[in-house]
Write a structure and sequence with these properties.
Mean pLDDT of chain A: 86
Order of helices and strands of chain B: EEEHEEHEHHHEHEHEEHEHEEHEH
Number of strands of chain A: 4
Strand order of the largest sheet of chain A: 2-1-3-4
Largest interface: A-B, 28 and 31 residues
Number of domains of chain B: 2
Bound molecules: adenosine-5'-triphosphate, magnesium ion
Radius of gyration of chain A: 29 Å
Largest sheet of chain B: 6 strands, mixed
Shape of chain A: elongated
Largest sheet of chain A: 4 strands, mixed
Strand order of the largest sheet of chain B: 6-7-8-3-9-10
CATH class of the largest domain in chain B: Alpha Beta
Structural class of chain A: mainly alpha
Oligomer: heterodimer
Shape of chain B: globular
Strand content of chain A: 5-15%
Number of domains of chain A: 2
Low-confidence stretches of chain A: none
Mean pLDDT of chain B: 90
C-alpha cells in the first residue's frame, strides 16, 4: 500500500517535472503568464478611471458678470471642470459640444444677474454631452452644490434673503471603504480575479488538450499512470503560477496603487485558493470538451467575456437587470470579486463572506465532478 | 524485467493474446466487426490490412486504450476490459504516429516513461537502453528534430524500457529507409528469441514474410488467420511466373482476360494469377505455347494473395450493396 502511494507520487513528480521542462522551453507562453498580469495592472489600474476629473467646459454668456465669474471659479475649484473659455450665442455653444471641444456648456442668460437681484429665480442651464453617461454623471450632479457655494458670498447685505436656505435636515454621506472614490482601489482587487480566470482556465485547458492534439495522450494512457496522477502533475505548476500572479498583483496593489489591505491575509488566501481550484477544474472541464488547443482557447474566451461583463468587474452588479444578475450568480468570478473586495477593502470577516464562499464550493464540486465524469481513461 | 525463455514457436501453450468477437463502432462506422484472434506466445504475429481496415483500433482495444463495444478477451492472461491497469505494466505499445514529447530530449523522454512505469534505478536503465538502441550520442537532442528512423528507434526503446512480455507495434517502420528497417527487424527477431511476443502491423510484404503468423483484416473483418507458411496455399490462388522476351505483349493481352485476376511485374518476370485454376490455364494456354517465353507454376506471393483478398472482399461488398 505504502509502495503504491509512493509510486503514485513519483509518477506525479515525473509529470510535474516534464511539464516544467516543457513550460521552460515554451518561452512565449511562460513570458505571457507573467507579463499579462503586469500589463493588465498597468492598463486597468492606471488608465481606467470611471470618475473622471478636469472635463472641458465652456461658458456661454454675452456679458460676463461678477456672478458668472464666481460660478466659473467654483467649477474650476471643484476639479470636475477645466474651463476652456467663453462662447457667445446658442450656435457657438452647440458647436462646442458637437465638435467635442467641450463636454459641458454652462449657459448664463443675459438677464441672469438682473433677475437674480430682483429675486425672480432665473434659470441657469448646464448642457452636457451625455453620450457617455458615466463620464458626465459625477460633474452634473455636483453642479447644484457648486453654484450654491459660488453665489453664497455674493448674496449678502441687501440680497441676503436670496441666499439659498439650508434644508431643514442634515444629510451626511459617508463614503466608507474608499472615501476618496479612487477607482483603482476597486479595480485592482477585481483584476486579481480577472487575471486568474483568464490565465488559469486558458492555460490548463490548453496544456491538457495539447496532449490529445499532439498524440502524446496515447503514450500517457498506455502507461500504468492513473488519470488523477496525470491531472495533479499537470495542474500543479499552474497552481504555482496562479500564486505567483497573485503575489505580483497584490504587491502592485499595495505599493503601486496604495490599495489598503484591511482584512485578514489568511482569509484572502483561502478565497484565492478556492478560486484557483475552481478555475483549474473549469480548465480541465474545457479540455474534456475541446478537441484542439484552438477550441480550448475559444471556449475560454466564450466564458471570459460574460465573466468580465456580468460579474461586477466592469459594471456595478446591482445595476444589471435580473436576468443578467442571474447569469452573474453562476459565474465564479462574481463571488470571488465580492470576496476579495470584501476582505481587502471592507475587512469583512468569514461569517460575512459565507454567502459567497459556498457558491464557489458548489461550483468547484459541480465543475470538478462534471470534468471527472467526462474525462476518459481511454482514447474514445 | 523479461525472462530469457527458450525459443517457443510451437503455437501451443497459453496464448499471449486471445480475443473474441471484438467490436468497435464510431458513429455509423463499424471499424472492427466481431473479430476473434489468437496470438500464440513467443511469435512474431503479422497484422495486415489496407488503410482504414481497423488495425490500429484493434491494437488499442488489446492493450486497454479503447473500450470495445462488444466482445471480450485476454492479453497475457489479463482481461482487456477489467484488468487493463495491470495489463499495461506488461505490455509495450508503439503507436503508429510518433507520440513521445517533441520538446523533450531523448533522455528526458526515456526518463519520463521509465518513471511512469515506476522502474527502479531509472538512470541505469535509461543509460542501458540508450546504449542498446544506439541513442547515446543523441541523448540530448530534442526528440522532435530526430529523423523518422531515429524517432522510430526511440519509440521502440521507450516501449521496451519496462521489459514488457508483449510488444504491440503499429506500423513501426512506415517511412523508414531499408537499412534501418532491416535493423529494426533484427531487433524484433531478437526479442522473440528472448520469449517476447510481438504483434506488428505493417503494409510491407517483405516484412510480412518474416512473420510466423499472419492475420489479414479488411473493414474490420478477418479474412485470413494462419501460420505464414500456409497463407498462400489457403488463399486458393494460382500463379504463373513468366520470363522471356516481349513480356509487355503478354501483359497487354492477358490483362482483364477471363480467369485472369492479376498481372503484375516483378523484376524481369511477370506474375499472372487467378482464383479459378482451370480458367487461368485456359486463358494462358495459347501464350504458354509461344516460343521464347518460359512459364513456371509457383506459389503465389503474399502481395498477390492480399491484393486478391482485398479485391474479392470489395467485390462481395459491392454485390451486397447492389442487392
Ligand atoms: N477515434 C476515432 N473516431 C472515429 N473514427 C475512427 C477513430 N479511429 C479510427 N476511426 C475509423 O475507424 C476505421 C479504422 O481505423 P484504423 O485506424 O483502426 O485503421 P488502420 O487499419 O489502422 O488504418 P491505417 O493502415 O491507415 O493505419 C477508419 O475508417 C477510421 O477512420
Ligand atoms: Mg493504423
Amino acid at each position: 500500500m505504502g509502495g503504491a502511494i509512493s509510486r503514485s507520487w513519483s509518477r506525479i513528480g515525473a509529470v510535474l517535472y516534464k511539464e516544467l521542462v516543457q513550460m521552460r522551453r515554451d518561452r512565449i507562453t511562460f513570458a505571457m503568464m507573467l507579463s499579462v498580469p503586469i500589463m493588465q495592472l498597468l492598463l486597468f489600474g492606471y488608465a481606467i478611471n470611471t470618475d473622471p476629473r478636469h472635463l472641458p467646459a465652456v461658458v456661454s454668456v454675452r456679458q460676463p458678470s461678477e456672478f458668472s465669474r464666481a460660478i466659473e471659479a467654483g467649477m474650476v475649484n471643484s476639479r470636475f471642470f477645466e474651463m476652456e473659455g467663453v462662447v457667445t450665442g446658442e450656435e457657438a455653444a452647440d458647436r462646442a459640444l458637437r465638435s467635442n471641444e467641450a463636454d459641458f456648456v454652462l449657459v448664463v442668460p443675459d438677464d441672469f444677474e438682473a433677475r437674480l437681484v430682483r429675486g425672480e429665480r432665473p434659470q441657469l442651464m448646464l448642457e452636457a454631452d451625455a453620450a457617455d453617461p458615466v463620464a458626465v454623471g459625477g460633474p452634473a450632479s455636483a453642479m447644484a452644490g457648486i453654484v450654491d457655494s459660488a453665489l453664497a458670498p455674493l448674496l449678502d447685505g441687501p440680497l441676503a434673503d436670496m441666499a439659498p436656505r439650508a434644508p431643514p435636515y442634515d444629510l451626511i454621506v459617508h463614503r466608507r471603504f474608499n472615501p476618496e472614490g479612487i477607482t483603482s482601489h476597486n479595480v485592482v482587487p477585481g483584476l486579481l480575479g480577472v487575471i486568474l480566470t483568464m490565465t488559469l482556465v486558458m492555460i490548463t485547458s490548453m496544456a491538457i488538450t495539447r496532449e490529445a492534439e499532439r498524440g502524446t495522450m496515447e503514450t500517457l494512457l498506455s502507461t500504468p499512470a492513473r488519470p488523477i496522477e496525470v491531472m495533479v502533475g499537470k495542474i500543479m505548476p499552474y497552481v504555482a503560477i496562479g500564486y505567483v500572479q497573485t503575489a505580483i498583483i497584490l504587491l502592485a496593489a499595495v505599493f503601486l496603487f496604495g490599495v489598503p489591505i484591511r482584512g485578514s491575509l489568511a482569509l484572502l488566501l483561502v478565497a484565492i485558493t478556492l478560486f484557483i481550484l475552481v478555475n483549474l477544474s473549469l480548465g480541465f472541464l474545457i479540455s474534456t470538451v475541446a478537441r484542439s488547443q484552438m477550441q480550448a482557447m475559444q471556449l475560454t474566451f466564450f466564458l471570459f467575456l460574460p465573466s468580465i461583463l456580468l460579474s461586477g468587474f466592469m459594471f456595478p452588479f446591482r445595476g444589471m437587470p435580473d436576468w443578467a444578475q442571474g447569469i452573474g450568480q453562476v459565474l465564479p468570478l462574481t463571488h470571488f470579486l465580492r470576496l476579495v473586495r470584501g476582505v481587502i477593502l471592507r475587512d469583512a470577516h468569514l461569517s460575512e463572506l459565507v454567502g459567497d464562499i459556498w457558491p464557489l464550493l458548489v461550483q468547484l464540486m459541480v465543475i470538478g465532478g462534471l470534468a471527472m465524469l467526462r474525462y476518459r481513461r481511454t482514447l474514445d | 524485467m523479461s525472462e530469457a525463455l527458450p525459443s517457443a514457436k510451437d503455437e501451443s501453450g497459453p496464448p499471449a493474446i486471445e480475443v473474441h468477437d471484438l467490436r468497435k463502432t464510431f458513429g455509423d462506422l463499424v471499424a472492427v466487426k466481431d473479430l476473434s484472434m489468437t496470438v500464440p506466445q513467443g511469435v512474431i504475429y503479422g497484422f495486415l490490412g489496407p488503410n482504414g481496415s481497423g488495425k490500429t483500433t484493434t491494437i488499442r482495444m488489446m492493450c486497454g486504450l479503447m473500450k470495445p463495444d462488444g466482445g471480450s478477451g485476454t492479453a497475457l492472461g489479463y482481461d482487456i476490459l477489467k484488468e487493463a491497469d495491470e495489463l499495461k505494466r506488461h505490455v509495450g505499445y508503439m503507436t503508429q504516429r510518433f507520440s513521445l514529447y517533441g520538446d523533450l530530449t531523448v533522455r528526458q523522454n526515456l526518463n519520463f516513461i521509465a518513471r511512469m512505469y515506476s522502474i527502479p534505478n531509472v538512470r541505469e536503465r535509461v543509460d542501458e537502453t540508450m546504449e542498446e538502441y544506439g541513442l547515446t550520442q543523441r541523448a540530448d537532442q530534442m526528440a522532435g528534430v530526430l529523423s523518422g528512423g531515429w524517432k522510430q528507434r526511440l519509440a521502440l526503446a521507450a516501449s521496451m524500457l519496462h521489459g514488457p512480455r508483449l510488444l504491440l507495434l503499429d506500423e513501426p517502420t512506415a517511412g523508414v529507409d531499408p537499412v534501418a528497417r532491416r535493423d529494426f527487424w533484427d531487433r524484433i527477431r531478437d526479442m522473440t528469441r528472448r520469449g517476447i511476443t510481438v504483434l506488428v502491423s505493417t503494409h510491407y510484404m517483405d516484412e510480412a514474410i518474416q512473420c510466423d503468423h499472419l492475420c489479414f483484416i479488411l473493414n474490420g473483418v478477418k479474412l485470413v488467420d494462419a501460420p505464414a507458411a500456409d497463407v498462400p496455399a489457403q488463399s486458393g490462388l494460382t500463379t504463373w511466373r513468366v520470363t522471356g522476351r516481349d513480356l509487355r505483349r503478354v501483359s497487354d493481352a492477358l490483362e482483364g482476360a477471363p480467369g485472369v485476376e492479376q498481372v503484375a511485374r516483378f523484376g524481369d518476370a511477370l506474375h499472372i494469377s487467378g482464383a479459378d485454376e482451370a480458367a487461368l490455364d485456359r486463358a494462358t494456354e495459347r501464350w504458354r505455347a509461344e516460343p521464347g517465353l518460359e512459364w513456371e507454376r509457383r506459389k503465389p506471393g503474399l502481395e498477390e494473395v492480399f491484393i486478391h483478398l482485398t479485391a474479392q472482399a470489395r467485390a462481395a461488398q459491392a454485390d451486397k450493396e447492389a442487392a
